[in-house]
Design brief:
By secondary structure, this protein is α/β, with parallel strands linked by helices. The chain has a single domain, classed as Alpha-Beta Barrel (TIM Barrel), CATH 3.20.20. It is 48% helix and 13% strand. The chain has an eight-stranded parallel β-sheet. Helix 4 runs parallel beside helix 6 and helix 8 packs parallel to helix 9. The structure holds adenine (ADE) and zinc ion. It is an enzyme of class 3 (hydrolase). Belongs to the metallo-dependent hydrolases superfamily. Adenosine and AMP deaminases family. Adenine deaminase type 2 subfamily. One of its GO terms (biological process) is hypoxanthine salvage. This is Adenine deaminase.
Length: 327
Amino acid sequence: MSIPKAELHLHIEGTLEPELAFRLAERNGVTLPFASVDELRAAYRFDDLQSFLDLYYRLTEVLGTEQDFTDLADAYLARARAQGVRHAEIFFDPQAHLARKVPIETVIGGLSASLDRSQERFGITTGLILCFLRDEPAEAALATLEAAKPYLDKIIAVGLDSAEVGNPPSKFTAVYERARELGLRAVAHAGEEGPASYVWEALDLLRVERIDHGIRSLEDPELVERLVRERVPLTVCPFSNVRLRCVDTLADHPLRRMLDAGLVATVNSDDPAYFGGYVGQNLVDTTAALGLTEDQVRTLARNSFEASFLDEPTRARYLAEVEAYRF
Ligand SMILES: Nc1ncnc2[nH]cnc12
Ligand SMILES: [Zn+2]
């Protein structure tokens, strides 16, 4: 669907298509445990978040040089543009690469080489969000933040991802405090597989401005009331929720109930190479499955810009494009 939209929940490592994974593996002399692109694509069946993360981290092994990260981001931006994305706030996982001795300098350098030209080449404004791996110790997150200090002008916010259950936001309170001192904004995955109490913690302890996923918030009416009252955006990822079995089918997805409750929901693709489609396709299929109205789709697009970290003049320009859009 080509309505102008912002994508606010997108892991750049999750845009690694099998074809590019094989090309980079060959370029870097890495052997993948799959014989072909088709065999790799066939492995994209998951039981839960962890089974996905196992493959996701395994495939990051093909990313080694600045050029690899530039190629990855360029490929995402080209696809995003074709799906009506006008602005993207992009997650990256420096700790996943550091584990293979790829320094943050290489990751940020490579991604920035692409993003610095995204406006002129693809007509997309962009920002980078540094994510901490919540299944690693808080000390590792703090060290990552310190290592990122020379590149703070290239980063808009910090985020929190990876295995959620058993790794509550409270573990990262001090890390987020330090990030705020450094002038960074804050988001966090919460309420994807984990309970609504993790959403409370992300709000109260990490003081995040958006919740990534947040679908389990609906289990707690008091939390929903707060999210509505404070207009805290939720970056919802329908294909991801179905593929990771957080939701049975697209027709069961809570997005419509979220909109009906007055929540500031947005639609995003999360890890589109793994979950069956990019953000426009998420919007098309979810709209059909849930019977969303054109007004609701326009609200989702409007929400995406309102929830973004854009400066006010640019936000206003994009919002005018949303209002002018004809279905
Ligand atoms: N959906 C997701 N949840 C948590 N961590 C992730 N890393 C990449 N995708 C993720
Ligand atoms: Zn995610």
